Amino acid sequence: MTQRPALLIMQRHLAPLTPFLESAYDVYRFWEGPPVEAAHDIQALVVAGEFPLDKHLVESLPNLQLIACFTSGYDRIDVPWCRERGLAVTHAPGVNHEDVADHAIGLVLAARRQIAAGDRTLRAGGWTAESKLITPSLKDQKLGVVGLGHIGEAVARRAEALRMTVRWWGPREKEAAWPRAGSLVELARDSDILVVACKADDSNIGLVSREVIEALGPEGLLVNVARGQLVDETALIAALKEGRLGQAALDVFEDEPTDAARWADVPNTVLTPHTGGATTEAVQGMLLLLLQNLQAAFAGEPLKTPVPED
Fold first, then answer.
1. Is 256 annotated in the active site?
2. What is the pTM of this model?
3. The domain containing residue 26 runs over which residues?
4. CATH number of the domain to which 90 belongs
5. Peptide bond preceding 257 in cis form (omega within 30 of 0)
6. Which of these is catalytic: 29, 76, 189, 227?
7. What is the dihedral of CA 220, 226, 227, 229, to 10 degrees?
8. Are residue 284 and residue 267 in the same domain, yes or no?
């Protein structure tokens, strides 16, 4: 093994981490080709938690000891499987949830007040003296939050400040400032706007089903800032095209990057490229936690932010 610990960065979009890691570690990048020659040297994988872990690769790295998620979410990482193999898993909690909530409200505003559509109309020369875009007020809109974790609570606080009425649903009761609906379908049926902000795992893929989408209805707005896999995307697209759902504002998608052609003829949408938590300050916070976890792992010290036991 080399004197310095070696790391393998798995996803191409994490490439900007390289210069921050190279001063202390030997850094390999998976998209440049599996580093067969360094298999015995690699002690940590640096990953984004929304991507499945390559288990075959993991088992080919005999000295691997850490799966370091750069992200807060780790939903596509099979944590029990890692623990069975003596692999620690870390992540970056509590760093970007306020920023994601800001983005969710931005999507609500962009969709309900037709901000993006208004921009396109003006640039296309469609603003005339006779035309006037009339949009609904947010006052008294009923906003339902799916998942009242850090992001969901932050969304709810902002929605109240914008004069909306808030309810929520999650699979477990908890003390909250807002009432909990009896079911997700009930929440959707009683909401004008449904914001998906819950964690994703194998048990809730497709949670926002056709039934939920149709309960939200032809005047409803679906906002997703959590994970694309939580929404039945095919059912969503069909409902938008057929007018069974009013609008969708999405920052996350079933497959990422999503194929632009998939959305080319889908009406009443506002789409952003998974940037909800990608602020300068949040990225700096995630980088700091990554560096602290790596340093602790290789020094034999307690990890800064290990993934909690279930």
1. yes
2. 0.92
3. 6-95+280-299
4. 3.40.50.720
5. yes
6. 227
7. -40
8. no
